[in-house]
Every structure is written in structure tokens, then in C-alpha cells.
Amino acid sequence: MARLSPVLQQATPVQVARGEGSYLYDTDGRRHLDFTAGIGVTSTGHCHPRVVAAAQEQVATLIHGQYTTVMHQPLLRLTERLGDVLPAGIDRVFFLNSGSEAVEASVRLARHATGRQTIIAFDGGFHGRTMGAAALTTSGAKIRAGIGPMMGGVAFAPFPYAFRYGWSEEETVAFCLKELDRILVTAAPARDVAAFLIEPVLGEGGYVPTPPAFLQGLRERADANGILLIADEVQTGYGRTGRFWGHQHVDGLAPDILITAKGLASGFPLSAIAAPEAIMSKALPGSQGGTYGGNAVACAAALATLDVIQDENLVANAGEQGLRLLEGLRKAAVDHPGVADVRGLGLMVGNEFLTADGAPDAAAATRAHGAAAERGLLLLTCGPFGNVVRMIPPLVVTAEQVDEGVELWSEALRAAAR
Ligand code: PMP
Prior knowledge:
Layout lengths: L15 E5 L2 E4 L4 E4 L2 H4 L8 H13 L11 H10 L9 E5 L2 H16 L3 E5 L8 H5 L5 H4 L9 E4 L4 H4 L3 H15 L9 E6 L2 E2 L5 E2 L2 H14 L2 E5 L24 E4 L10 E5 L1 H4 L15 H16 L2 H20 L5 E7 L2 E6 L8 H13 L2 E2 L1 E3 L5 E4 L7 H19 L1
Parallel strand pairs: 3-15, 5-6, 5-7, 7-10, 10-11
Antiparallel strand pairs: 1-2, 2-3, 4-12, 8-9, 11-12, 13-14, 14-17, 16-17
The structure holds 4'-deoxy-4'-aminopyridoxal-5'-phosphate.
The site of 4'-deoxy-4'-aminopyridoxal-5'-phosphate has 15 residues, from helix 4.
């Protein structure tokens, strides 16, 4: 009998048997309110009947078409359909399997399109675990530790995490843009920079919405220097933040390359990069691909996911329920000074724990996370110090389920404080 490698770090001891909507049911039949959504993946909830039906039908028709050998209909239909939701002008897409793979594909494309090498990523960013994506990731030591040397051609600039700096958002953005300007004439000369790579909400790094003025500052610097702006929308895309794409919280802003995965196919492995023709056409033909990319069942599930998101108005629901969650959590935090900040955008909400001295308090976050799990509320932690408890309900979450989650969290905070 083989056993799983101890490399696995599991957030809860729960063994699930099945899922339905916002709930998971464990092997003992106990119900858990799932505010992890498979790390922001099960956008339409667990086993949405329309996604299930589309996948079942596709499984019986064609499982694997292999797009570098033969083309298949679900991939073509999904490509066309994405035109309805992609930002104007971004009309070329290419499919892969995971977020990490798509991040690496975006780097490949940016380097091909610009003939430059350097990618500037931001402190605390998470872009994946494969070696190239890990080289761009600074959300926590475990992703990078002991595996170097890392891929070259990467520079890091400060991310405007205002709460950590202890400054206003305006001051933080001004500081970070100033630092970026310095980096563009020192460590990473602008003429060598292919792209800025940023998450519209810093995800694994602590659930910090990127201030609109910072994204605008990046766009201006990109335009002035022939640098591409890559939006890593792996976690923020597909309605999660209350807009279809996270970057759409900034009026008029468009990235040059957009990366999507997670919520795209409600749990089937699928990711994509998207860019305007002028950029995508610079890719060396054949330089992107893979055995499983654009899998037919995953594409069929993605088509059904889009139908459900549109028909059930899930983007608006994410915005509404996100606000309700944020308000509820802020009220819950009033009696718990250890919860020093509650922030978020749409259905990406983080609770940051600090000690009385203002130091990151991973122990308190872990206690509250564990107490929530004991009460049937599944959550995750994040942040470089592990001191942020984050909530990522599925986009189908109802007001009653948000209230249930807030109530369980309040109980967990009380229990963890004892
Ligand atoms: N980018 C972001 C912003 C992510 O949140 C993640 C996953 N948490 C990734 C990339 C990597 O995606 P995957 O785990 O599918 O490789």
C-alpha cells in the first residue's frame, strides 16, 4: 500500500464525500459550509446541475481531442463565447491546464512579443508553483525555499499593502510608484522590461485589493516604456470580485495579457491566456501547447459555467454578497481586537490578525481557522506570515449562507479567544 507524500499540507482534516452548491458533505455525512470553493475554483458551487449535465454529455461524446493534433467543438465554441466576456480588443485566446502553466505561457508570450526579458512582479504576489511561476512568486517562503537557482529575468517591486505599511492608501501608492520608478532606472532598466505582472487583488499574499491608482500608474509606465501589463486574474477573474474581471474596478483600464483559470470551468482543470491579435501574433508558432490543454470535458464545463454565471446573474451576486460578508465580518471583529483589519473585494475577503504589539499573529489566525472548521465552516489562511484568514465562497452563495458563515465565524472567534 502506498501512502501520500508528507509534502502535502492540508488546511483541514476533512475528508469529503460529495458537494452541492455552497456545501461539502464529509464521509461521516456532516455538512460543511465551504467558504474555500476549492481555492476560488467552484464558481458555480459544487456540482451545479447544468455544469454536471454538460460534462456528462461531453464525457459520452469525446473526452480528449488533443488540440495540437485535432480540433474539437467545445474548444472552438468556448473560444468564440469568451469574446462576450473578454475586455474589448482582447480577442485571441489559448488554453492550458492550470494557473501556473498560464502564467508561464504569459511570460513566454511577453518575451516573444517585446524581445525583452525582464518581468517585474510585486512583493507578496502569488503566480504558481512550477519553476517559472515560482520565480515570480513571493507570497511565502515555502514556494521558493531550497529550490534555487530560480529563473532569471525577474525583478520585484513593492506592492501597495497600505495596512502593512501603516500609511493611507494614497501615501502607499505614491511610495510604491516612486520605488518602481527607481527600479526602472536601476535594477530593471525600462528598456529591458517585457512586462509588469500583477494580481488585481493580492491573493495568497494576504487578500489586499490592488489600489486602482496603482494599477493606473502601472498602465501609464507600461505605455510610456513599451512594457506590457499582464493581469493575473487566476483568482480574481470570472466574477469573483463583483466585476467580471478584477481589473475592471479601474475605469477604462485594460491589460495587454490576461490570465484566467480557477473559476473558468467550475472545478475542471482549465486555464487560458488572452491578448490582442497584435501581441498574440508575435508568439513563435508551436511555442505554447501541451497534452491536456483545452480538454474537451473542461471546455464543455466552462461553456456551462459561463451560461450559469450569466443566467443566474452571479457577477452581481458576488458584489452584493461580498459587501454583506464584509459588513458582517467587520461587525464580528469589533469585539476581537486581534482581528486588526477586515478587507476585500467582492467574494474575496480577508481577516488579518495582529498581536497587541502590532506583529503578525499567525497563531491567532490558525486558532480561529481551526475553531471555524470544528463548527463546520471551511476557510483558508494566507499572507506571508499566515496571519490572514480568507473567505472565498462560491459565486452562488446566498444571503442566508453569508449570514450563516458570519455567525459561525463569530462563534469561532469567541471560542479561539478563550
Ligand atoms: N495565480 C494566482 C493569482 C493564483 O491565485 C494561483 C493559485 N492560487 C495561481 C496563479 C496558480 O494556479 P494553479 O494552482 O492552478 O497552478
